[in-house]
Amino acid sequence: MEYRQLGRSGLKVPALSLGTGTFGGSGDFFERWGSTQGDEARRMVDICLEHGLNFFDTADVYSAGRSEEVLGQALKGRRDQALISSKGTFTMGSGPNDVGSSRYHLTRAVEASLRRLETDHIDLYFMHGFDALTPVDETLRALDDLISSGKIGYIGASNFSGWHLMKALATSEKYGLGRYVAYQGYYSLIGRDYEWELMPLALDQGVGTMVWSPLGWGRLTGKIRRGQDTSQGRIAAGGAVGGPPVEDELLFRVVDVLDEIARQRGKTVAQVALNWVLRRPSVANVVIGARNEEQLQQNLGALGWELSSEEIGRLDDASRKEPVYPYWHQKGFESRNPKPTRW
């Protein structure tokens, strides 16, 4: 396992973490992701720890808290071997204060996550989304107090716009409050918008990126190919609901190249797609998901080798889209405003 520095923090994390959105399976939305529980969840944690993958990502809204419960039970007796990240902000009750990033909600959300996880601390805690109704300094002061109390180790932001994240970082610096050391966001070969603003920001400000859905919401697993029947599998069964949109031609163009490289390298399509994300600037960790032991073992095969610069170039070319304004305009001034990777 390769370990990487998480932003400007002193924390080292494995290059891969296990996303536990597939744990629990409560509700129609999360049941489509998976319903791993009990012995199967413990076995998947066993495999991860055996491979040096000691980082597990969850959130309070995953299966209405059930994901945290299953993960806590699977880690029982070996919590000291693991890093846990969880998230708060989204709705977790029927009351008017059961949502958002207010001090009121965050304090209660963290306490509830600790109970479900059966632990006294969460190593990395994310704001799952930006709350425009709560002052940024209120959120950061609440998180800073939770850090001081030992209930949270580090903090991060997820799904923020670039200006959301920069405003928060500036507020932390102004008042001497805990600073977001990680950004968890969507990034894949069929979803490269992250490169336009968030990647340069992460590199400039020393924020480590944790990538969610590196396989494009399950579209880059090798099960979807040009000219093949797509009536089977999670996507066909409604699993694309809530996920990022993608044009068919872009998807097929990328999969064509992934397929060719996978055959030449003796790898799977998913392993090649994951390896590409792992080599991108600013990426500290890639969150992999798995519905079962077989999928987990396959995803672990993304490590231990590297795509060549020629292969990366082919994938870059196949996945490139014209950026939106003002980023297409900035391309004309790259001599003074260079980007960290090819758009």
What can you see in these coordinates?
The structure is a single chain. With 343 residues, the protein is α/β, with parallel strands linked by helices. Helix 9 (248-265) crosses helix 10 (269-278). 39% of the residues lie in helices and 15% in strands. It starts with a strand and ends in a 13-residue tail after the last helix. The strands form two sheets. Strands 3-4-5-6-7-8-9-10 form an eight-stranded parallel β-barrel, surrounded by six helices. The protein has a two-stranded antiparallel sheet with strand order 1-2. The protein is built from 13 helices and ten strands. Strand 8 (180-186), helix 7 (198-205) and strand 9 (208-212) form a beta-alpha-beta unit.
Structure at a glance:
By secondary structure, this protein is of the alpha/beta class.
Furnish the topology, listing elements before pairings.
Layout: E1 3-5, E2 12-14, E3 16-19, H1 27-33, H2 38-50, E4 55-57, H3 66-74, E5 83-88, H4 103-117, E6 122-127, H5 136-148, E7 152-158, H6 162-175, E8 180-186, H7 198-205, E9 208-212, H8 235-239, H9 248-265, H10 269-278, E10 283-288, H11 293-300, H12 309-319, H13 327-330
Parallel strand pairs: 3-4, 3-10, 4-5, 5-6, 6-7, 7-8, 8-9, 9-10
Antiparallel strand pairs: 1-2
Helix pairs in contact: 2-3, 3-4, 9-10, 9-12
Q: Which strand order do you get reading across the main beta sheet?
A: 3-4-5-6-7-8-9-10
Helix content: 25-40%
β-strand number? 10
H and E string: EEEHHEHEHEHEHEHEHHHEHHH
Percentage beta strand: 5-15%
**Mean pLDDT over the residues:** 94
Note the main attributes of this structure:
8-stranded parallel barrel, alpha/beta, 343 residues, two-stranded antiparallel sheet, 13 helices
